[in-house]
């Protein structure tokens, strides 16, 4: 349980940190997202009910801090990020047996893909509201860039969280107990 | 699926349904509450970032010094560090003096604010400022600098507010172009790969023939932005099928904003 609360605290910390991380110039100013990687780690490491609680918290935080209420309209209603996180984390949770066996590489790749999927879903939602659907090079970078960065960051974040799990004696550890 | 998981799923569904049923006002209030809770963390983060920037600047000076005379290295380091600190203070004093002058000569009632965070999301261009309801800030108030228009407030909590930048596609500003009778709507681009995104000035007449360098000001139509605030300068003009469109370079360098003013009324 301590590990779960540590993950919640890390989600808050990462969400705040994202505000201070400048976008990457050479990726058409794509942003770096850390929270999804932590949430997807939680999806693999936590049991189903706690995974849902983590998803609920992270989604609520994301919606509260990023979604804009302009005049009398909200482009993405509160709760959509929770739903997105839940679906994607559910997929990750389904691959948990692989994670328990100590196979992390699939999850690292999936973390990147799921991070991009969240941003793509957001883009589609705002596009349908604003009209004129278009996919330029910049759009693809803005969607793919964060996923790529998440994929690169995932091994380090997973390894760190694995260490935290070990320190807190969290029982759901991979059998091999080390990153491969 | 275990019984616990099913119960958890049902509770999750109920909470999700509750969030999805939020209207505009409830969303705004909820967001404002979350921002208020996190305000101390934002302030701490902002302070930390400033310290890190200062340290990294000083480290650069140290690297430069290493290549110089080794005998004077230690003394040089000290002098450079002191100099850097003084330059920072000088910059701060100049910035504040500039801001104070603008505040005094402005025709608007201005509340000075500092940028606490920059946008962290991909699809919205926003910044967070360290002023809120306690400073009589409300939603849809224009935010400016002495150089021109910055944006408008959206979510406002007690001590912190979110400002939607003029470069966001949703921030639509009624504009008029100097030296012409042309009126249009300026708004940002949905996606831009540039550090300093351009603005689109739409719904101009096809015959507008705007020239680079011409200035676009707020026209005051719409009620949110008072007239006469500089939005940007024309970079190019193109005729489209139904109207003319100009690309504007924003008057304010939004990527390096430090201080802004919220317009709370006229003097």
Structural summary, described in words:
- The complex is a heterodimer of chains A (180) and B (267).
- With 180 residues, chain A is mostly helical.
- Chain A has one domain: Arp2/3 complex 21 kDa subunit ARPC3 (Orthogonal Bundle).
- Helix content of chain A is 70%, strand content 2%.
- Chain A contains seven helices and two strands.
- A two-stranded antiparallel sheet of chain A has the order 1-2.
- In chain A, α6 crosses α7.
- The longest helix of chain A has 31 residues.
- Chain B is an alpha+beta fold.
- Chain B folds into two domains: 147 residues, Beta Barrel (Thrombin, subunit H), CATH 2.40.10; 79 residues, Rod shape-determining protein MreC, domain 2 (Thrombin, subunit H), CATH 2.40.10.350.
- Chain B contains three helices and twelve strands, in the order αααββββββββββββ.
- Chain B has a six-stranded antiparallel β-barrel with strand order 1-2-5-4-3-12. Chain B has a six-stranded antiparallel β-barrel with strand order 6-7-8-11-10-9.
- In chain B, α2 runs antiparallel to α3.
- The longest helix of chain B is centred in the first third of the chain and has 43 residues.
- Chain B is globular and about 70 Å long.
- The mean pLDDT of chain B is 84.
- Classes of the chains: A mainly alpha (180), B alpha+beta (267).
- At the A-B interface, α1, α3, β1, β2 and α4 of A face α1 and α2 of B.
CATH architecture of chain A: Orthogonal Bundle
Text of the CATH class of the largest domain in chain B: Mainly Beta
Helical content band of chain B: 25-40%
- Provide the domain count of chain B: 2
Oligomer: heterodimer
Main sheet makeup of chain B: 6 strands, antiparallel, barrel
Structural class of chain A, by secondary structure, is mainly alpha
Largest sheet of chain A: 2 strands, antiparallel
Distance between the termini of chain A: 26 Å
The total beta strand count of chain A reads: 2
């Amino acid at each position: 349980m301590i590990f779960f609360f540590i993950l919640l605290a890390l989600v808050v910390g990462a969400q705040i940190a994202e505000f201070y991380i400048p976008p990457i110039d050479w990726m058409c100013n794509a942003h770096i997202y850390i929270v999804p990687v932590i949430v997807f780690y939680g999806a693999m490491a936590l049991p189903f009910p706690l995974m849902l609680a983590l998803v609920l918290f992270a989604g609520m935080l994301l919606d509260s801090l990023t979604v804009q209420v302009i005049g009398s309209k909200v482009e993405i209603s509160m709760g959509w990020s929770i739903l997105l996180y839940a679906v994607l984390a559910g997929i990750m949770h389904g691959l948990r047996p692989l994670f328990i066996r100590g196979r992390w590489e699939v999850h690292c790749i999936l973390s990147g893909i799921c991070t991009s999927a969240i941003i793509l879903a957001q883009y589609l939602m705002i596009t349908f509201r604003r009209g004129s659907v278009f996919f330029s090079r910049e759009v693809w970078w803005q969607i793919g860039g964060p996923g790529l960065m998440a994929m690169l960051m995932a091994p380090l974040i997973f390894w760190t969280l694995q260490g935290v799990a070990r320190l807190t004696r969290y029982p759901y550890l991979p059998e091999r107990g080390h990153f491969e | 699926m275990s019984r616990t998981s099913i119960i958890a799923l049902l509770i999750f569904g109920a909470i999700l349904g509750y969030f999805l049923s939020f209207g505009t006002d409830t969303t705004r209030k909820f967001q404002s509450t979350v921002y208020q809770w996190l305000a101390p963390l934002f302030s701490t983060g902002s302070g930390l970032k400033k310290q890190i920037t200062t340290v990294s600047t000083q480290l650069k000076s140290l690297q430069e010094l290493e290549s110089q005379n080794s005998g004077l290295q230690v003394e040089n380091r000290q002098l450079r560090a002191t100099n850097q600190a003084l330059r920072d203070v000088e910059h701060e004093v100049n910035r504040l003096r500039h801001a104070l002058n603008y505040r005094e000569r402005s025709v608007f009632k201005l509340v000075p604010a500092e940028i606490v965070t920059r946008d962290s999301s991909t699809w919205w261009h926003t910044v967070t400022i360290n002023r809120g309801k306690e400073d009589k800030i409300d939603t849809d108030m224009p935010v400016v600098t002495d150089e021109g228009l910055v944006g408008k407030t959206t979510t406002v909590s007690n001590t912190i507010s979110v400002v939607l930048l003029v470069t966001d596609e949703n921030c639509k500003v009624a504009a008029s172009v100097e030296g012409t009778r042309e009126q249009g709507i300026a708004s940002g681009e949905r996606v831009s790969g540039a550090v300093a995104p351009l603005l689109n000035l739409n719904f101009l007449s096809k015959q507008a023939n705007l020239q680079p360098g011409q200035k676009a000001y707020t026209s005051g139509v719409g009620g949110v932005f008072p007239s006469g605030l500089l939005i940007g300068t024309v970079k190019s003009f193109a005729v489209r099928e139904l109207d003319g469109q100009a690309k504007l370079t924003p008057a304010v360098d939004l990527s390096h904003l430090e201080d802004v003013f919220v317009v709370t009324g006229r003097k």
